[in-house]
Specification:
mainly alpha; Helicase, Ruva Protein, domain 3; 2 domains; 60% helix
Length: 166
């Protein structure tokens, strides 16, 4: 029974089911609009301890500190981009779960589409080569020289059974 419940939980998490966020009640801002902004920003920022979780999902003390810092900056009137810029200046680009498109991250952004295009071209060339190799082996597409045709006629005539009188 425990295994079944564990499997159901894992499937629910993988399918994006409800997962408890790490935001504590004492962190929540009284203004719902500002709290929504804080939550949106928290989902874009990486927990420096967990590294593959947003600070919105992480229970690490540093993630809590970052959530409080985001809320503090929003309370002082910073825009979303100012909050992000402040955190990037303090912690570096690594704090962003989705890195910005800059010259430093150009390879990171362009490598997946280039790999996809390269794989598609490789498959296309491979299939063309296979189809060309298959058509070369097709006897109906082979052409014989006159000398080869004459030799083939002689060989076929020598192997042919004598005609039966009718």
């Amino acid at each position: 029974m425990k295994r079944l419940l564990a499997c159901v939980f894992v499937v629910a998490v993988m399918l994006g089911g409800p997962v408890a966020n790490a935001v504590q009640p004492d962190e929540i801002m009284p203004d719902p609009a500002k709290e929504a902004r804080a939550r949106d920003l928290s989902r874009e920022l990486r927990c420096m301890v967990c590294q593959n979780q947003s600070i919105d999902d992480s229970d690490a003390p540093l993630a809590r500190d970052l959530r409080l810092l985001v809320r503090e900056r929003i309370a002082t009137g910073d825009s979303d981009s100012q909050v992000i810029d402040f955190l990037v200046a303090r912690y570096g680009e690594f704090v962003l779960l989705k890195p910005r498109f800059t010259s430093h991250t150009l390879l990171l952004w362009l490598l997946p589409p280039l790999a996809l295009i390269g794989g598609g071209l490789a498959l296309w060339f491979y299939s063309r080569r296979r189809s060309n190799a298959g058509s070369a082996a097709d006897p109906s597409l082979m052409h014989l020289t006159e000398e080869e045709e004459a030799r083939l006629d002689r060989l076929l005539a020598a192997d042919a059974p004598p005609d039966k009188p009718v």
